[in-house]
Amino acid sequence: MNMFEDIEIAIVAPFPSRKRVKEGWMSRIGTVDEIIKQRARLYIHISQNNSSEASFSKVEENAWEICISPGSPDYKGVLDSIYESVNTVYIHTIHLAEFIVPWLDSGKCIVDFHGIVPEEEVMLGRPELVEKYEAIEQEVLRKAKACVMVTRAMQKHYREKYPLINPKVIVLPIVEEMHFPANVGDPKGESELPVRVVYAGGIQVWQNVDAMLELAAVAHGVADFQFLSQDWKAIEKDAKKKPLPRKPKFKFCPKENLVQEYMNHDFGLVLRDDSAVNRVACPTKLYEYMEIGLIPIVRSPMLGDFLELGYAYVTENEFEAGFFPDRVSRGMMQKKNKQVVRAMREMFLAGASDLRSRLDA
């Protein structure tokens, strides 16, 4: 008897429990889980840190998780059994696809790219891994039942990188529906200055948090800055090394309180460099800022599909020079960005519908 016979879909990723889902890749896993939640699904948590003996548990109604090490003697047998039982295996990231390469020919694999891994490895200072991950991504593009990408820009990137490969692509952008509190007026008041600027997120190298602190130092006469992060103490420590006449605020903000915090601000920081990685990305915070009505301050406007969709923004250099929109102009920019948010929501719904249909194909 096959213990997986009642499973409809397997997902190669850790189960997105509330404890795990905060931001980044786990947030994406949680979003996809919502799309397929009505199906009996098995999460395959593959990690070198797992015990050599596979463990199997029910994690919620209609969902199970198996934790297994790729070095386990049972690994191939367990994966063979899963592949025999399910119609589709949904694999999150090229990193995890590395462990599924022997089963790519099954015709059952859907791979969610999340990002462009070889280029990310270069950015992270690990160029020696490029060859390995380029080989894996080519295998995936050739053999997967479908490739899920976060932006049209990512689809274009792969079309140009591998013109002879014609993958089946689903574009599923990262959208985060924000829930507005009831009966809230404008907490920002009527005064034009100081404007209020917020950053919400981590301190990964590509976020350029140091540049945000430098901007806060330059704009101290016209703007108040706040940093919302799990790593707020590290940001505060770096801030003490800067000449900041007007001290920013630093704190952790739970996800459920983000909307209220955003509504106290005028601008949101997204200072990502112009790079291949960022040109195909779909920054969650940028979408959130725009949905709430914050005007993005960007280093490079070339972020995913946002520029093509016509979003309104202020550049880092413009803000530093004191050239930024007044309240009336911001109102017009907010309307423009709401249209972009709606367009992305429609792209997401179309992608989710396409994904559901592919699960049964």
Description:
This is Glycosyltransferase. The protein is an alpha/beta fold. The protein has 2 domains: 9-176 and 346-360, Glycogen Phosphorylase B (Rossmann fold, 3-Layer(aba) Sandwich); 195-343, Rossmann fold (3-Layer(aba) Sandwich), CATH 3.40.50.2000. The protein has 14 helices and 14 strands. Strands 3-4-2-1-5-6-7-8 form an 8-stranded mixed β-sheet, sandwiched between helices. α12 links the parallel β13 and β14. α4 (117-123) runs antiparallel to α5 (130-143). The longest helix is centred in the last third of the chain and has 33 residues, at 327-359. The two termini are 26 Å apart. The mean pLDDT is 92.
Outline the secondary-structure elements.
Blueprint: E1 9-12, H1 25-35, E2 41-46, E3 55-60, E4 63-68, H2 75-85, E5 88-92, H3 94-97, E6 109-112, H4 117-123, H5 130-143, E7 146-149, H6 152-161, E8 169-171, E9 195-200, H7 209-218, E10 223-228, H8 232-239, E11 249-251, H9 258-262, E12 267-270, H10 276-279, H11 284-292, E13 295-298, H12 306-309, E14 314-315, H13 316-320, H14 327-359
Helix pairs in contact: 4-5
